[in-house]
Amino acid sequence: MSIVKSLIEYHKMIPHPEGGHYVEVFKNRDVSHIYFLLEGHEHSHWHRITKNETVHFYSGDPLEIYTSKDGEEFETNQIGSNNNFIYSIEKNTWFAMKPKGKYSLIGCTVAPAFEFEDLELASKNWKPSKFNLSLK
Questions:
Q1: What is the tens place of the pLDDT at every residue in 52-103?
Q2: pLDDT band per the 50, 70, 90 thresholds, residue 121
Q3: Residues facing residue 99 across a β-bridge
Q4: What number of other Cβ atoms are within 10 A of residue 13's Cβ?
Q5: Which of 61, 103, 91 is CA-nearest to residue 78?
Q6: In this predicted structure, what is the pLDDT of residue 31?
Q7: What CA–CA distance (Å, rounded) separates 96 from 49?
Q8: Distance CA 7, CA 68 (A)
Q9: Averaged over 35-61, what is the pLDDT?
Q10: Taking the domains of the chain in order of start, what are their residue ranges?
Q11: Is the pLDDT of residue 125 over 80?
Q12: How far apart are CA 18 and CA 96, in angstroms?
C-alpha cells in the first residue's frame, strides 16, 4: 500500500470540498485543527475563509501556497523546504495549494474554530487576474 493511501486510511480522511482529503483532529469554539493531504496530481481549489488560518507542514514534499488579497496580484510561498514549516493566511485572502512532488501532508489551524459556512469556493475556472501559473 502506498504511503498516501496508508495515511488516508489510518487517519480516516474523507474528500474535502476544495480538493484533497482531510480529517478534523481537534475542535472547540476557539480553534479547530485538521490534517489535510494533497496528492501530487491534486491541488486545492481557489478559496477563502472568514477567519485566519495557519498551515503546518508534516510530511511528504514541499507545498506551494498561492495567495491573493485583491483577486488580481498573487504571492507564492512554500512550506516543507528551507526550514520553513508554517505559514499563516489572513482572513478573506484567496488561496490555493499544490504539492511539489508525490504528496504533502499538512495541518490547518483556524481560530476561532472553522465552520463550513466560513468557506467560499471560487467559481471553477476563477484565479487571480495576474496568476500566470498552472495548478494542473
A1: 999 999 999 999 999 999 999 999 999 999 999 999 999 999 999 999 999 9
A2: very high
A3: 63
A4: 18
A5: 61
A6: 98
A7: 12
A8: 30
A9: 97
A10: 3-121
A11: yes
A12: 9
Distances (CA, A) of 84 to 11, 57, 58: 25, 8, 11
Contacts of 20 (CB under 8 A, 6+ apart): 36, 37, 38, 39, 42, 44
- Per DSSP, what are the bridge partners of residue 60? 104
Distance CA(113)–CA(11), nearest Å, equals 20
Q: Average pLDDT for residues 18-25, to the nearest whole number?
A: 97
Residue 62's alpha-carbon distances to 90, 91, 121, in angstroms, are 21, 23, 24
Note the CATH architecture for domain 3-121. Answer: Sandwich (2.60)
Residue 97 C-beta-side C-alpha neighbours within 13 Å: 30
Separation between Cα atoms, residue 4 and residue 60, nearest integer Å: 9
